[in-house]
Structure formats: C-alpha cells, structure tokens
Amino acid sequence: GQNIDQPTEMTATEGAIVQINCTYQTSGFNGLFWYQQHAGEAPTFLSYNVLDGLEEKGRFSSFLSRSKGYSYLLLKELQMKDSASYLCAVRADSNYQLIWGAGTKLIIKP
Amino acid sequence: ETGVTQTPRHLVMGMTNKKSLKCEQHLGHNAMYWYKQSAKKPLELMFVYSLEERVENNSVPSRFSPECPNSSHLFLHLHTLQPEDSALYLCASSRRGVGGNYGYTFGSGTRLTVV
C-alpha cells in the first residue's frame, strides 16, 4: 500500500532550528512536496524535491533520500509565524495525484 | 487569495438540508480536486476532475455529488449529511499530465458543521 509517516506534533523555540521528518512507502516516486498550513487556512506550497539532496530556499530547506524513502524539512531562525502544520506529499507516478501524510503540527514557543 | 476561491468559508447545515460548495480557479489548470480534511488525519481525496471529466471517485457516499461544468468551476452538492461529515473541505487545482514542480494550489476551504 501507499503510506507516508510524519510526527504528529513538534515543539521548538523561537530563533532555533527544527527538522521535520517524513518517510514514505509508495508504489513509485515522481517527486515529494512540502506544504505549510496555518490553522483554518489553505495549504501553501513550500518545496519540491525529485532528486537526492538538499534544496534551500531562504530559512527553509528540504532534503530527499530516495533510496531511504526519507525527506526532511529544516526550518531555521524560527519565528512565531512558523507555527503551523507541515504536510508531506508524494507523487507516486507520472500522474498528477499526490499521496498525503497526516501533517506535523509545529508549535513555536517564545 | 491563493488563486483558488472557495465559498462559503463556513457552513452549518442540518442533516436534512441541501447545500452546495463552490470552487473557482483562473490559473489555467486542467485538473480540480475535492479533499476532506479531518483533524489529525491525512487529506482524503474525494473526487478528481480532469478536463471536466470525473476521473476518480474514492468510494465517497452518494450524499456527496460533484459537478464540474467547465475547467474553472467545481461544485460539491451536499444532501442528507451525517454529523461525521463535519470537516474542512478543500478544493485544489493543478496541471494534469505534467511532471516537475507542479503541485496543487488550494482554496481556503469550507469549514462544514453538520448538526
């Protein structure tokens, strides 16, 4: 079957660094996405990885290891506004549909 | 605004009511989706329309009825819902058949409460 696992909730301190992990078991692989979702709002696109390695975009970076079925989202210099849920999603084939994890709720404390 | 507009933002309905959710996108996308989001659960794909044809229906109860009159508009018609149908309903759009960095653009969702 298709499965994506990520921690349910994490807590971090303002100004610190946090890493949110995502592991996946899917029938194929054609890209991994990270989305951010603030409470009551739409998920918004953060990053996309299809090749192994690290993609950096400002304070956010995303890493992928296809052989391990593993990705992480790294958030640096945490701000209170980073408190949100972070969703990991995999496109399993050349189709356009995504398989979603349940999301990780990140709580930032002063 | 994300480029995908959903209305209404909030909806409270009785189990005998009939209501409709509306979604609109003008991003030039050719696939549209309805998702159900419940607390602490993955997004549940309900329906997919590609080029105005329904291409997937994930065993959704018949009390949910989708309609896609054109590539920019998507509706979800609701009737005789149950309390367990209370959730956030998200519309999304994407480009079909294109790999690469083409994920979804989501609407802000409709928070549905069935009483």
Oligomer: heterodimer
Of all chain pairs, the largest interface belongs to:
A-B, 26 and 29 residues
- Morphology call of chain B: globular
Straight-line distance between termini of chain B: 30 Å
What class, by secondary structure content of chain B?
mainly beta
* Overall 3D form of chain A: globular
Give the number of DSSP strands of chain A: 11
Q: N- to C-terminal separation of chain A? A: 41 Å
Class by SSE composition of chain A: mainly beta
Tally of separate helices of chain A: 0
Helix coverage percent of chain A: under 10%
Radius of gyration of chain B over alpha carbons? 14 Å
- Rg of chain A, Cα atoms, Å: 13 Å
- Major pleated sheet of chain A: 6 strands, mixed
Report helical residue fraction of chain B.
Answer: under 10%
Mean pLDDT of chain B: 89
Question: What do you see in this structure?
Answer:
- The complex is a heterodimer of chains A (110) and B (115).
- In chain A, the strands form 2 sheets. In chain A, strands 2, 4, 5, 9, 10 and 11 form a 6-stranded mixed β-sheet that branches.
- In chain A, 37% of the residues are buried.
- Chain A is mainly beta and 110 residues long.
- Chain A has no helices and 11 strands.
- Chain A has strands spanning 3-5, 9-13, 18-25, 32-37, 44-49, 53-57, 60-65, 70-75, 84-90, 99-100, 104-109.
- By secondary structure, chain B is mainly beta.
- In chain B, a hairpin with a 6-residue loop joins strand 4 (31-37) and strand 5 (44-50).
- Chain B has strands at residues 4-7, 10-13, 18-25, 31-37, 44-50, 53-57, 64-70, 73-79, 87-94, 105-106, 110-114.
- Chain B starts with a strand and ends with a strand.
- At the A-B interface, strand 5 of A face strand 5 and strand 10 of B.
